[in-house]
Amino acid sequence: MAEAVSDALESETHLLVQAGTGTGKSLGYLVPSLLHRDRVVIATATLALQHQLVERDIPRLMDAIGHHRDIDTSYAVLKGRSNYACLHRIREGVPDDQGVLVEAPVGSLGEQVIELREWAEDEAKRGLSGERDNAPRHTERVWRQVSVSARECLGKAKCAFGEECFAEQAKEKAASSQLVVTNHSLLAIDAIEGIPMIPEYDAVVIDEAHELVARVTQAASSELAPGDVERAGRRAARQVDGREADELLDAADVLTDALAELSPGRIERMTVELADALALVRDAARACFSAFPKEKSGDEADAAKTQAKAMVGDVLAVAERMAADLESDVLWRNDRLPQHGGPQLCLAPLQVWGQIRDKLLADKTVVFTSATLMLGGDFGAVASSLGLKPTERVPDGAEPPPRGEGVQPWRGFDVGSPFDYGKQGILYVAKHLPPPGRDGLVKAQLDEIVDLIDAADGRTLGLFSSRRAAEAAAEEVRARLPHLTTLAQGDAQLPELAKQFVEDPHTVLFGTLSLWQGLDVPGDTCTLVLIDRIPFPRPDDPLMSARQKAADKAGANGFMSVAATHAALLMAQGAGRLIRTSSDRGVVAVLDPRLATARYGGFLRASLPPMWPTVDPQMVRAALKRLAGN
User: Fold this and answer.
1) Residue 342 within a domain
2) Of 14, 30, 132, 153, which sits most exposed with the smallest number of CB within 10 A?
């Protein structure tokens, strides 16, 4: 893998490299990245991997090669500005909804804010990073009291604490480092949105690359609720002398009325009322933004004014994009976020492969790596979603053509796995069960879950398609297997649940999406991974259904290219929770018979690790009992 990455960087040829758990793929790309002539950016999807790179893998590598004086071993971590504590906000106060600077709130919330302020001051005193990940435990609401977004930031030149600023120091360190470790979202903002966030680089390694499309989509998505417009208007009212802020408040009421006339879900054709309301919000926000007093040289920085103007600017940018009603965007009414106090409008790009191709692949050499890049036994589906054409793939042994306008040559390489999946794991499909319905788990499925967990004597990670299904299964197992400890996502924070799961083998842990990808539990703690159903997107998911329709319209098979690909990625990640070391043994049990009976089942099965397959429940229960020592 190291040689393949080195060749890709030298020949400026993009690379997709699938490397299973346990292959040491981080070293496979870190070594050639250190030896590359220019700075290399390493982008990860999860904080867990970023932490592993920075706390373990990179320091070990630097220690090993530290005696080579001719190798630049410098590295830095770079995150979005809101991930660092803001010393100005901590020392000067936080503007409230009216723009008045207030002290910390009272009660337990205030105590947490004070604790974070003291932590940040200690970080500054000791010359540390001020990163959110290193802070005492806190909620999102509390963190907002000690941080700012990029728009709210006064800027280093105007801020009294600019020289001490944690975010600025992180940028300076990155600018003088060979390796810069960041996340997919910041990479997307820098390369695709065109907002400079990362120092100059010509190559990027994207780890957990199966997540990139979702993260780029997320970074390019926007939300707008009447409450957002109203808060921006209230903040602006203290800064603007004319009626512009009042007109923005009036526009919020018009948007509320227009939203009330819509049904939840995708808005395929914008109503006249909604179009008029968005145009009104856009025009009022533009007038309000322009009405802020111009800053004069020598003026003292005003945090309340900066933040108010940033809020109006955010409303303007989102309303402008929504009002444009572009075919390349998907718009929907979302009622699932109660913190907004009502419905909100959401907007996301219909596709991102074109942006990835034009803005990232055209300018940088990109190495994509993950344990899950081959779906249905081929790189084609993932390569296409990332903006690489199957026809551009360079055959093994052939010289790649030069990258140029309209041509992005790439190679695909499967490192393989150190594990013998055929001997270490069983893939069990409960073919005898009824297909899953819309009403949640039925008695036959609950009986199967209880029987399998009883045979495994705990030691089970249950991956469910919904919180409701996970909770129903947990309730059934608690009632029928009271001698086991049954945990459900939401009972405590995920790290606490994982710790308890690892420490006691007679434990069952049930959860949803974050467990599918974010949990590493090697050893006999986990000998059974349960998957309740094939994780197709929800039929009412506005973005995924729009992408599926667009694929059908373009002549492709929308179901296979969108829904089945989405499900295959998640199933491969979920099944990957079982075998984490060469001594692990166990069963992946899928309670959805469609994996064995449907035409698309072969594509999904070919996306999973090559475990020994069976549909025999008695054989599987006997295997689990042997593993449990019963």
Assistant:
1) yes
2) 132
66 occurs within a structural domain:
yes
Same domain, 334 and 191: no
DSSP conformation class of 83: G
Distances (CA, A) of 478 to 191, 453, 469, 556, 628: 49, 11, 14, 46, 19
Residues 192 and 263 reside in one and the same domain: no
Residue 381: give its domain's CATH number.
3.40.50.300
Q: With respect to residue 300, please indicate whether it lies within any of the assigned structural domains.
A: yes
Q: How many domains does the chain have?
A: 4
Phi, psi for 87 (deg, rounded to 5): -65, -30
- Residues 426 and 495 both lie in one domain: yes
Contact 142, 109 (CB under 8 A): yes
For the stretch 455-489, pLDDT in tens is: 999 999 999 988 999 999 999 999 999 999 999 98
Q: Is 426 left (phi over 0), alpha (psi -120 to 50) or beta?
A: beta
pLDDT in tens, 99-134: 444 455 556 677 888 889 999 999 999 999 998 888
Give the integer Cα–Cα distance in Å for 26 and 29. Answer: 6
Do 187 and 295 have their domain in common? no
Strand partners, 330: 348
Q: The domain containing residue 146 runs over which residues?
A: 82-162
Tokens of 606: 């070919």
Segment holding 180, helix H or strand E = strand 179-183
Cα(621)–Cα(602) distance, integer angstroms: 24
Which of 383, 430, 395 is closest to 590 using CA atoms? 430
- This model's pTM is above 0.85: yes
pLDDT digits (tens, 9 = 90+) for 88-102: 888 887 655 444 444
Is 23 a member of any domain?
yes
Q: How far is CA 626 from CA 126, 461, 620, 629, in A?
A: 54, 18, 10, 5
- Condensed to tens digits (0 to 9), the pLDDT of residues 219-255 reads 899 999 999 999 999 999 988 888 999 999 999 999 9
Quick one: pLDDT at residue 340? 52
Structural contact between residues 157 and 71, judged by C-beta atoms closer than 8 angstroms: no
